[in-house]
Design brief:
By secondary structure, this protein is α/β, with parallel strands linked by helices. It has a single domain, classed as Alpha/Beta hydrolase fold, catalytic domain (Rossmann fold, 3-Layer(aba) Sandwich), CATH 3.40.50. The chain contains 12 helices and 8 strands. A hairpin with a 2-residue loop joins strand 1 and strand 2. The longest helix is centred in the middle third of the chain and has 16 residues. The N and C termini lie far apart (34 Å). 49% of the residues are buried. GO terms for molecular function: hydrolase activity. This is 2-hydroxy-6-ketonona-2,4-dienedioic acid hydrolase. It comes from Kitasatospora phosalacinea. Pfam families: Abhydrolase_1 (PF00561).
């Protein structure tokens, strides 16, 4: 099934929003009068990471965006740190009139969402951390992210993009050929090629260290928080998820078997049911 046929049971539109001067690609769907849910992808990702989640969440006002420097969103020429991603997120929310949202963040998106919950608690109704980054600095993992991404961007060989996407998944079949083609097109857009080092800047140890979510940050998250983790996550093992869960008061941890770094995609049916239950409870 195509990405777009998965979404098409729900009316949607893809448009560009001016977020304080940064053209931001966004997929909008659902009920504009309902509470907002905002989906944030991971490093070198794009909004199609949530294609299998849009229709299930259509009772809400849905926003899936390409984050700063990612996908087809604008790419200011500077290394991006968490404050840059967070500033862009808030600028987007302001531009579309979203005062607060249920934030669903995968990997880098979880890192940014957690920082939003700490620094701007009034903007975050609930928080989902899907294989979230930001609590550790593992040189091996950082090198794997940086090397696999730069190899795929530097070469037109689509198999390198395929390998980069499969790296995220417990089952290679989850990295569909359509997703590979979408990512390959993004990776080889001239603006993306020129800016790839900016979006990989958090794989630099010194920069990553000063952006990490420390225990004192996690302890300040008071919003309802759901941590979802794949047991085959290549970028973070289960003890990392447990520490994240224990560090956030009152949070809930769900471990997915036979799942890698994209639980919302790899096990969409299970994830969607879990997410809807969680958001519904958080929304009261």
């Amino acid at each position: 099934m195509s990405i777009w046929t998965e979404i098409s049971p729900t009316p949607f539109r893809v448009e560009y929003v001016d977020a304080a001067g940064v053209p931001t690609r966004t997929l909008r769907a659902g009920d504009p009068n309902a509470e907002s849910v905002l989906f944030l992808h991971g490093t070198s990702g794009h909004l199609e990471a949530f294609a299998r989640n849009i229709t299930a969440h259509a009772a809400y006002d849905l926003h899936a965006i390409d984050m700063l420097g990612h996908g087809y969103t604008g790419k200011p020429d500077r290394p991006y740190e968490i404050a840059d991603y967070l500033g862009h997120l808030l600028d987007y929310m302001d531009a579309v009139g979203v005062g607060s949202a249920h934030i669903v963040g995968e990997s880098l998106g979880g890192w940014v969402g957690a920082r939003a919950a700490v620094d701007h608690p009034e903007r975050v109704r609930s928080l989902q951390l899907l294989c979230s980054g930001g609590t550790v600095a593992n040189p091996e993992v950082m090198d794997r992210i940086r090397t696999s991404t730069k190899q795929a961007v530097a070469s037109d060989d689509i198999d390198l993009t395929r390998r980069r996407l499969r790296l995220l998944m417990a089952d290679d079949a989850s990295a569909t050929e359509e997703l590979v083609e979408v990512r390959h097109a993004i990776y080889h857009a001239p603006e993306f090629v020129a800016g790839v080092d900016n979006l990989l800047s958090l794989q630099d140890m010194e920069r990553r260290q000063r952006n990490l979510l420390r225990p004192e940050h996690l302890s300040r998250i008071t919003q309802p928080t759901l941590v979802v983790w794949g047991r085959q996550n290549p970028f973070g093992e289960v003890p990392e998820a447990v520490a994240l869960h224990r560090g956030i008061p009152g949070s809930r941890l769900e471990l997915f078997e036979e799942c890698g770094h994209w639980p919302q995609h790899e096990q969409a049916e299970r994830y969607n049911a879990l997410s809807l239950e969680f958001i519904g409870a958080a929304a009261g």
